[in-house]
Amino acid sequence: MRDPAIHRYPDRQTLAEALAAGVAAVLAGGIATRGRARLAVSGGSTPALFFDHLAKTAIDWRDVCVTLVDERWVPDDHPRSNARLVKERLLVGPAAAAHFEPLFTGAARPQDALDELSAAFETESPCFDAVILGMGADGHTASFFPDAAELDAVTDADRRDLVSGITAPSAGEPRITLTLRPLALSRFLALHIEGEEKLAVLNRALEDGPVRELPVRAVLRASRPDPVSVFWAP
Fold it and tell me: How, if at all, do strands 175-178 and 70-72 pair?
């Protein structure tokens, strides 16, 4: 395992500005190289300020496709929908021109949408230009929950599956998530965490131990050309 590159900032505002600038540069590079760029982001409360800053950056958003790392299986007008957060905080201003690919399809269960979503991702590429992950106090990232029945499968980088349904008592609603493989193949992979509690969890995750104890270990240990970039502020 390569140690992550840990970037520490004095406050969350400075972190959000730096992460937004870094992601914008990566997306601009993808557009310049291939004429398009793909970004996968996470939900929760942590990324909102980062979204505010990224939405204002002056890149050609018409050539950017935005999707989610994971999603609760709820409609996008639901208060707990990650898509709702992205639409309200990221896909505004200049970034409103981006193309958004939600994970929730309206199917009865996440498992019923896997073929449709996998086909959509494979049409482009399993490799994103940038993926921004969060992390819970239980060490989960994406929807890799410690008590997920599918955890071993979704954290196996050798599996070809790009998306998976998740069944985990601690997750609340059924969920859908990108698997480890497309996350690890991204050109820029960042873990955005805030607060002393999550820094302590990260430090534990960098120690030896099973992935099921702290699933973020699967990401930190993934084989990739560049180490994971951790962005942290108190």
Answer: antiparallel
DSSP bridge pairs for 193: 232
Neighbouring CB atoms inside 10 A of 25's CB total: 14
Kindly report the backbone phi and psi dihedral angles of residue 157, in degrees, each rounded to the nearest multiple of 5, phi listed first.
-70, -15
How far apart, in whole angstroms, are the C-alpha atoms of residue 52 and residue 23? Answer: 13
CATH of the domain at 101: 3.40.50.1360
Number of domains the chain contains: 1
| Cα–Cα distance, 65 to 103 (Å, whole number) | 13
CA 194 – CA 22 distance, rounded (Å)? 18
The whole domain housing 212 covers 5-233
pLDDT digits (tens, 9 = 90+) for 146-200: 999 999 999 999 998 999 999 999 999 999 999 999 999 999 999 999 999 999 9
